[in-house]
Design a protein that fits this description.
The complex is a heterodimer of chains A (about 250) and B (about 110).
Chain A (H helix, E strand, L loop, with lengths): L7 E10 L13 E5 L4 E8 H4 L1 H8 L2 H16 L6 E4 L5 E2 L2 H21 L3 E10 L15 H35 L3 E5 L4 H4 L4 E11 L4 H8 L5 E9 L5 H4 L1
Antiparallel strand pairs in A: 1-3, 1-4, 1-5, 2-3, 6-8, 6-9, 7-8
Chain B lengths: L2 H5 L17 H10 L10 H17 L2 H6 L19 H12 L5 H4 L1
The chains are: A alpha+beta (about 250), B mainly alpha (about 110).
Chain lengths: ~250, ~110
Amino acid sequence: MIGAEAATALYAYAAVGPAGAALEGDLPVGLELIGDDEIAIVVERVSLDEFAEESLRENLNDRQWLESKARRHEEAVQALLGKTTVIPLRFGSIHHDRDAVGAFLDERRSEFRQALTSLQNRVELGVKAWLVERPAADTAAPAPTTGREYLNARRRARDDATQASGRRAEILAAVHERLLSLSEAGVLNGPQPPELSGRDEVMLMNAAYLVRIGDDRLAAEVGRLSVDEIQFELTGPWVPYNFVERVS
Amino acid sequence: MSSRDLSGARTSPTLTGGGPAPAQLADVLERVLDKGIVIAGDIQINLLDIELLTIRLRLLIASADKAREMGIDWWDGDPFLSGGRKDKSLDERLRRLESAAGLEDDEDRA
């Protein structure tokens, strides 16, 4: 430890370019740019009390802490969306000082340059599909009066469910194909479990697509999608989180 | 501050001035923790790598029960993520039906 200097560090949120001092005005209070007119890193001074090893392990398991830091990260990368091209960095990139940030910028400059070029004027749109329970779907059949009837009913229900799930898989594959044709790239992520999504409904699809800014075709298509028991949800625009590794 | 306050962060003009819909916490966590270019930071990057990998596994891939076994349970007792949300009606309906039909475990007898 080297006195007061050791108490803070710099959290690097994103690489942006073209950069320049004019962009600083669009940053939330507390954030600054380190770099030059071509590429700069969005950073914030953070306390080592929170981000040093011993605290970090605990903090990462503290939901409120994690949520507030994740939202701050989101806010930081999102702030310059539409103003320049933003390459988000992974959560928790912590550096001792400005020199260290400058050093990794120089080291990775060609990689950032390539990503900035290929993602210029692009945003990410999220598309999620939910299975919404049809109301009173099982009240048509008479209630079983014997164990055998009950078992048969359950078997039928299971067969129906298997068929329905096959149908849904086909529908969603077709939807993904369609959305890919309206975008430059797309990825399918694992569906979020209810504990994470906060919704009772089962998530069937969790996709992200890369589109040009101003190209509304995919968003319009999602708005038109209508399938009986599947509800579609559009999120974003996001900075292209899901597409930076592709180009790096 | 409750997590519901935070969940509306996207709508605040001081934050992004961006999209009209509030960003769901799940969508933010998924992106911020799991995506983005990895930069080897000065501070405990090895620990971070490991922690982030496990968080990713726990949150996004493993089932909730599995995650609890692994010791991650921060959504338990949190109103935003679990309180008043868990719908047990299907389980209860099944139990009522089974009890009405005089069955405890139909799978074994089928």
